[in-house]
Amino acid sequence: MNLYLVKRILALIPVLFVVSVVIFLIIHITPGDPASVILGESATAQDVEALRQQLGLDLPIYQQYMNWITDVLRGDLGESYFMKESVSEAIFSHLQPTLSLAILAQIIALLIAIPLGITAALRRGTAADQTVMGFSLLGMAIPSFLLALFLILLVGVKLQWLPVAGYKPLEAGLWNHLKYLILPAVSLGAIQSALITRMTRSSMLEVLNMNYMKAARSKGVKDRQLIYKHALRNAFLPILTVIGQTFGGLVTGAVVTETIFNIPGIGQLIINSVERRDYEVIQGVVLFVTCVYVFINLIVDILYGVIDPRVRLERK
Amino acid sequence: MDALGSNAKRLELSQVKQTLKKEQRRLQLRRFLSNKLMLTGSIIIVLITAFALVGPYLVSYDPYEMDPVKRLQPPGAEHLLGTDNFGRDLLTRIVYGARVSIGVGFSVALISAAAGMVIGLYSGYYRALDQVLMRICDGLMAIPGILLAIALVAALGPMTENVIIALGIVFIPYVARIVRSATLVVREETYIEAMKAQGASATRIIWMHIAPNTLSPLVVQATFIFADAIITEAALSFLGAGVPTPDPSWGNILYDGKLVIFKAWWMTVFPGILIILTVMGLNFAGDGIRDMVDPHSSLSFKRKKKK
Amino acid sequence: MKASRIVRTLAIWMVAASLAGCGAQTAQTGQNEGAQPPGQGQAQPEPAKEPQAATGGELKIAYQAQPPTLDPHVTTSQASATIGRNVFETLVTADSKYHVQPMLAESWEQSEDGTTITFRLRQGVRFHNGKEMTADDVAASMNRWIQISSAGKDHFTGAVFEAKDAQTAVLTLKQPTATAMAILAYGGGNYPAIMPKELIDQADPKGVKEYVGTGPFQFKEWKQDQQIHLTKYADYQARSEAADGLAGKREARVDDIYFIFTPDSSTQVAGLLSGEFDIAADVSYDSVQQLESNPEIKVDVAPTGMLNLYFNKKKGLFANEKARQAIAAGIDAESILIAAYTQEKYYELNHNMMMYYQIGQWSSENGRESYNQNNPEKAKQLLGEAGYNGEEIVIMTSRDYEDMYNGAVAFQQQLKNLGVKSKLEVYDWPTFTELRNDENKFDILVITNTPKPEPSSLAFMRKDFPGWTNSPELDELLVKFRGAPNLEKAMSVYDDIQKWFYEYVPVVKIGDGNSISSSQKSVEGMTWLDGLILWNVSNAK
After folding, report:
1. Hey, are the CB atoms on B66 and C409 less than 8 Å from each other?
2. From A127, A244, B142, C125, which residue has the greatest number of CB atoms within 10 Å?
């Protein structure tokens, strides 16, 4: 098991290397640079060129990359051209909103999906089942930003129940904090919710038909007990898999959602930094997000192995 | 047996073959028709494609024609779906936008399928290439797709062709992986070894024997990529980083519509509905193909990443 | 099912740990903020209410563009100026009639030959860090401004500030500059702020390391992409004259100002309507209806800039004056302006090179008949004479500014009607600012220019600004203009400059645009001059 872990972690290194090169190249090929943004609308070409030299942006790309990557390996992600903080500080300060958003989306998804999945499984073949399946098909087809726009129109404009944009940190009070995150969380979590619904339903169906369930039922154990003690527990594993595979997607899906709802999280940090060509921040954040993504996949794999001995034994 | 007799037998045989083939085709058609998913999906796709191809001839406005006085009119007699913030007819823009959005989606699916297939086949077959290519693919897949797309389009320039290239690059690794897995499996088959022993060239083996076996998962994946590409193009254009103005695309219309969302819900709702329908159609079709092709995959998940 | 229980507990702990970790992080920053109330918008009672409702409280301003930096010497950004002017002050400033008035300088004298201006400084003015302002600070700040700011480099080449004694600073110009005082008094982007000498010396190319000025508000905190927080400077030394434009008495009538960055217009409007914001600056034109119909909300209009078509005069079709005159003849300015600004009250058809609010100071009758001719026949004829053969011309603009973008789309349509084939390329701002310096990349740019205190500062007058105006006639006129012994004499040259403007056609002026700001009824005293003025503004909430 440990050897497997070590091998997996070692395999990450070339991946991260490729990521760093790819993102560095792409950004530096892009026209426009932080110098012109800093100087503002009426600056001339000469002014911009002068600032570029002072910022070291006219060095050959190879050299700029080496400077950056050696710093990164020492733990220094660099400094933003615009914000008076280091890239690491920027990432941490923008992390809470995204994390809150992702976790809330996950929770909402589960709260919606599991009851729906159970209902559909218990009433298999009925109208209720068809409706739930229909909704889940719809949920898988709507891109999150589209759902966000529809929610804004419906809830924000027609019903006016919730604020349609903005953000308040936790210090402002739990409800205040959550109020601004509900709409974005729902739009982010919809696809997950759809997938988990289907997963729950099929796992439940599988288990409900097993022999030991029939045996328990014939012994007189109440249905509800059966569901919660046995069926749900067995559905837990596949649901966990879905969560693991899509949680990373939640974090990256936050990019568009945060932009729409004006939430100052990692997604908005990236978009704004791209707009300003804040090179160090873009590179640092993409590396960070990639690490998180890869890390989550690793954890899911490990957990999967821990929980299900069959999987563990199957691995070489 | 005399010559006449054998000829008759041959005729009988070919007749039997013909009937068999007809039966086979009929069975396939029945399978196709009874697979409700596949059917619904295909119908939707056909309808929307027709909409995209034929639509421009049925609408009376020009998608670029502006009428500043008539900005932001709600759906009505003169403009069936209303007008946008420049006074352009929304129905016309959506119809022309269908061409762009679907065209982009299709091209991306094609490019990533083709390139992905090549990469997958060769890295599955040659160990050395495998290490290098798969590392690169892993790297590309690790970067969140939409970020990679935004960065690529920013670097290449805001043109529809570049959007296609960028999205192609984003999706190629996924196809490559699938083709590679299939290649790895087929490569171990005894008949491949036998051919190698007989001196068949690598190219022949790869293309004549391994490749056909990778086609089914490839087609399934390509269908889902088609859907994903439409969504990603819409997201890119919505962020202002996709198809450039004033060319219409569904995402573009959403971008213009966001600014006036409280005044003009039609600019958001109509293109949105079309995106959903198209994606649903493609998802159904993809599911259907997969059911027909690989009945064991009920527990696997459709899409590797979410927006 | 032990394993699942383990996993479940693990999961709960992971979540709790990460939230706690983040909480700890933010709690720390909260402590660093000192006695300030944490975060924004917390539902808590106002700090101890003053007896008069006229002072105290806060102003929460929804602001669209986040400035790249608050250091005014470095950036020409207008957003930076509007926010920064509460913190920094200048030697002289402009009143509502754009006359130069004293601010940090008490008085000034120009020498006979016009090459020396001696400033006598106010006594007892303190910076926000407690240090008293002397001529050393003035000299250091002004010399830096001359060296690195656009205006400084353009109009004050070779000029030097020296501290004669603690209260006197002397500006020595290379040649007499009639417009010197007007430029020094400008309150918009790239204004000449006075900062402590030590900060100037320690500054790097990105800007000064701390924002310390002499203004009625001091810089408290900048949460990137969220907000800038300014607080009242208790030891502010106000001038005694009545407030007039940017001049006179400046009083901080609220304790805190928050500039909250809301790039999305619907957020601004929703926030204003719900009371979350007190002021919304630069509201999107389409959102105004909702605001105007609300009795609790005031809507004000202020000039934002001039929409111009810049020609590539270095290369291509428009190096030919006739081609430029052709476009000038064929344009229907009004429909472009409607597309850009949506309603008549948000734009002005103004033939002058300067903006409509500058009429009286900088205006001329010359060129009126050449403006907004809307004559497609004449245009086509001139195009033919210029040798236009149906080539595709490239129009470039930025999608980050609503009026530029919308105006460009409308303009392209009009070109079509003139029989000109064109391609519209829309880029984000950083790409746009880079590409527009390349003469191979465009034929026409659609840009809005910020207004300037005097005509020779207008962007299209510069040889090195995209468009590359190169006219010996203009050079002569500018020499005459700038070298005039005083401003009045300079103004008389303006007539000729505007005549040149309509013959040479460096750019085609479409019109003047306004921006909309909106505030709660409880906000009183807000005015505008080259940006919103937030001192002397009270919030009776």
Report:
1. yes
2. B142
